[in-house]
Amino acid sequence: MQNEDQIWRLVDERRDDYIGLADRIWEMPEIAYNEYKSTAEHKAMLEKEGFRISENLAGIPTAVMGEAGEGGPIIAILGEYDALPGLSQEAAHPEPKPRPGDGMGHGCGHNLLGSASLMAAAAVKDWLAANNLPGRVRYYGCPAEEGGAAKAFMVREGCFEDVDIAISWHPAGFSGVNDAMSLANTRIDFSFTGRASHAAASPHLGRSALDAVELMNVGVNYMREHMPSDARIHYAILDTGGVAPNVVQATAKVRYAIRARDLTELWPLIERVKKVAEGAALMTETTVTHKVISAVSNLLGNTPLEKAMYGALTRLGPPPFDAEDKALAEKFQATLSPEDIRSAYRRVGMKVKPNTPLCDEIVPIDARGAPMMGSTDVGDVSWVVPTVQARGATYAIGTPGHSWQLTAQSKSSIGNKGMIHVAKVMAATAVEALQNPALIDAAKADYRDRTDANPYVCPLPTDVMPPIRKPAA
Ligand SMILES: [Zn+2]
After folding, report:
1. pLDDT tens for residues 249-271?
2. 417 vs 247: CA distance, rounded Å
3. For the CA atoms of 92, 98, 101, 102, what is the dihedral angle to 10 degrees?
4. pLDDT (tens digit, 9 = 90+) per residue, 148-164?
5. How far is the CA of 309 from the centre of ligand 1 (A)?
6. H or E stretch at 266
């Protein structure tokens, strides 16, 4: 059943090559804007597949794109390959055991994310050639999803301007269509400047920047009661102004992450946080400046594309996990709490199914899950191109995001089977759009309905540039 379509056979033929690619990326975890080796691996695979390659997209050296086909509509399939700090872990090992090295790990499964998307794009390329049809397929290798907002910079530079539809996915505990709920988000640094002084001999001459940071945090914490209930604000103090308590701290810096349901709700919330910062500066006779570090938009759904992807999923069936995969998943579930597992079901809107360590069905398209309270830079793409995302079951149900358990399963038979399965889902969705121009028209009409009255405004100020890093020596 998983192979009855030509497009699915074209995915399966590539199995070993793409498991190899995902494993190599897993072995070389690189964090945001530092994915030089991972990008080189993706570029080499694009070359091997015969794609026409564009590098340095939006001036980012770790962003790469491959295109194949001629004329017709342009289908973009988006991949990622950045890792996370502090999540190093032995592959498929169900107890915490970091690998030797710098502590980085693929705790969000982006090694699978990039590999499955490139695999899908390559299968669609061969399908177009075999059927002699017009149409172009592109694989976008997108860096720095984790806190780096690379796709927002790529959107700002027009990288998706001529794209008709975009398709992507994310590793998950379940197989289904992503319900397009994520928060718009921005990170802003507030820097306070006061006046140093001896804290005992002349405290009246000092003006404490650290006091200002503390008062700002108190002010924002009081604001929480009076903001939209699904907005989120968190902060980290980046500079406390020094370690000597007998010196009045002349500088201090706090980083705020501000999230809201959409940009329309985010903008006024940012203004309120700025007012609290100014109030704290006024109270302490310090001065404050702020600098936006990154920003992403909320995800926009697209009903026709979601229905098309769901159709592909129901024809394909759930991922073909076997008894060995389930036995391994059970070992990972043994490291989780019952609440981890319950809340995973709650998030996708399904009833808890006992003794089911791995997803064995498709999440119904009308399941009403709890909204995802994170953010993703796919959001910005969805504001400029009709976009659909799958969730691909690549780990035991209940595995927390950004965890050692997730790193471990991202190089395992579970991750591999889930990756190939979701590549088939994306490739079949692309093929459906290429065969059926009415689907692309409907996707565009749905997109216009959602954006006409409320067009995209890039949340990145024009002077903010991607924080590009040099390759490690
Ligand atoms: Zn992720």
Report:
1. 999 999 999 999 988 899 999 99
2. 59
3. 110
4. 899 999 999 999 999 99
5. 20
6. helix 263-284
